[in-house]
Write a structure and sequence with these properties.
Helix content is 59%, strand content 0%. It has 160 residues and is mainly α. It is rod-shaped, with a radius of gyration of 49 Å.
């Protein structure tokens, strides 16, 4: 008899539907059922107010539509600006590559010119063919510039 009794309790628990989850077994707590409270009858004025508050007016719909349109326009504008910035970065990167290539070419031409010039040949030609000589110590004049880092000579330097 006890076996049947326990089985019946188990079957009864299994048939109950609890809110949100299902519990089963001998360690299950019994949930207290909350009795339903009868709904109060509302006055006409309260019912009208509730009905009014749930309705959305046309003005509010227009306002929400404008706000949504402005938000969408701002997002589109932001995306366009982001695309422009990305494109400008790409252009800057390509110009940097071009500049680096031009610098490399310039350095290569410069080193080619330097290696093609023979300074000993130029010195021999200047001394032997053109009759040039090195400056003597008494011919050299030293001049200290003012605040500028370079000197422009507009006339002959005075003898002192």
């Amino acid at each position: 008899m006890t076996g049947t009794r326990n089985r019946n309790k188990y079957d009864n628990r299994r048939k109950r539907i609890y809110t949100g989850y299902y519990e089963d077994g001998n360690a299950v707590r019994r949930l207290e059922e909350v009795p339903e409270q009868p709904k109060k009858k509302l006055s006409r004025r309260a019912e009208r107010n509730r009905a009014k508050s749930t309705n959305i007016s046309r003005g509010y719909i227009v306002f929400l539509s404008l706000v949504c349109a402005l938000a969408t326009a701002a997002c589109v504008h932001y995306i366009k600006l982001t695309a422009q910035v990305t494109a400008q970065r790409g252009v800057a990167a390509s110009r940097e590559l071009e500049l680096n290539q031009l610098k490399e070419d310039n350095d290569a031409y410069y080193s080619e010119v330097l290696t093609s010039v023979d300074l000993d040949e130029i010195r021999d030609k200047a001394i032997n063919e053109l009759g040039m000589q090195y400056a003597a110590e008494e011919q050299i004049r030293y001049y200290t510039p003012g605040n500028n880092s370079y000197v422009r000579q507009y006339q002959d330097v005075p003898e002192n």
